[in-house]
Amino acid sequence: MSASPPRQPLLTEGPIARTLLMFALPILGSTVLQSLNASVNAMWIGHFLGESALTAISNASLIVFLLITAVFGVSMASTILIGQSLGARNMLEAKRVVGTGVSFFVVMSVLVSVFGYFATPAMLRALGTPADALPYAVPYLHMIFVAMPTIYFYNFLMMTLRGAGDSRTPFLFMGLSVLLDIALNPLFIFGWGPVPAMGTAGSAVATLIAQSVALIALLSTLYGRKHFLRLTRAELGFLKPDPVILRALIFKGLPMGLQMLVISSSSMLMMRLVNSYGSQTVAAYGAATQLWTYVQMPAMAIGAAVSSMAAQNVGAQLWDRVNRIARIGVGYNFLLSGLLIGIIYIFNRAALNLFLPGDGEALALAAHLNMIAVWSFLFFGVTFVLFGVVRSTGAVWPPLIVLTISMWLIRPPFAVTLMPSIGAEAIWWSFPLGSMAAMLMAMGYYKWGGWRKAHMLSAPHAKASLIPAVVEGDA
């Protein structure tokens, strides 16, 4: 009898520390590439279009993040459901999740795109965007919303692959889109030959083209390699939403989407508070947040990795591995996030100088607020990792409650109360306070909460269907 080809390795197997690290590194790489892309674009805009344009992008980015959360929860819920299904060796349920998720996700992304396009001016005014930044922010956001369906579907596919235990393929195609985006940005921002100069809108056009090319290439590759989660012609019926799965995607995805909504809306409120101090302070805050994005990357990558890894182990009922995944994930957070924070403390002004002129008032402000707030992201990392494990079972409401308390009931009231006496310092110190409170609550719920008894689906949805052998690299 001939030997069967090697199958896709599952996250329920192998040494946990090595498996988690090897799975998390491509996720970290993808996050680095995304942030590098945003930072390079910010450098072009900040240095060549001015501080008002950089202020516009800082405000616009918060709005984009807010609207992405409208569908983030659905894709995260589908990732967990796919992980649990594959951990339980239930291929039929995994494909049903993919089909239902695709249909729901496409419809939602179009609705968000249309809403965002027409509501752009109103959202910018509600955020308190400075008047000198509005002419830069509106055209940028309009083009971003045109690109939203492509961006959403592309990210949905990548999260689906991660739920299946493959983080390498998303990383490779993320690299493709980022390289295209970086290469096309100066062309469309400044114009060349027949290409007109579009300013900030040109940066969004480059994103649209890069994401579209990467999406088409990813779909072609998955079908060319006969990926085991692809929907064949005979399986297109799975695109008809399954009521049980759709209910889980909505009612489990909604709280996870609201978690991101709490984070982004709190960030928008903090930006509104910062906006009251003028463009110099806003530019300083915008530059600092560029660095904070990098500091958060290890925790976000590890949190995403432990969520996918824990979901498969929950599906396989390997609870001892789930607990060890949490401990090892927290350890990796302290190691990797701590290293980045240390580097930023050493090269604080030099790093900020990438986004701000070296002789401006904004650079000194940014260096000061960075020293106050950047270390608090160690606390953020612990919270993110523990919540990644918790939500892998379907316990999605307690993390939402914790984030709401820390980011709305602690951080903004602290800042608003002390701003009249110590000014912007109150805003900067509210970050470590809110992060520490979130970490303590997350640790308490992980230890004493009932998350281990939670579930994504109310009952087993389909009889187990053994996962077929998959040649290494097909995923």
TrEMBL record:
PANTHER family: MULTIDRUG RESISTANCE PROTEIN YPNP-RELATED. It comes from Dyella soli. It holds the Pfam family MatE. GO terms for molecular function: antiporter activity; xenobiotic transmembrane transporter activity. It is a multi-pass membrane protein. GO terms for cellular component: plasma membrane. Keywords: Cell membrane, Membrane, Transmembrane, Transmembrane helix, Transport. It is found in: Cell inner membrane. This is MATE family efflux transporter. The chain crosses the membrane at residues 20-40, 60-82, 102-120, 140-159, 171-192, 204-223, 244-271, 291-310, 330-347, 367-389, 396-414, 426-446.
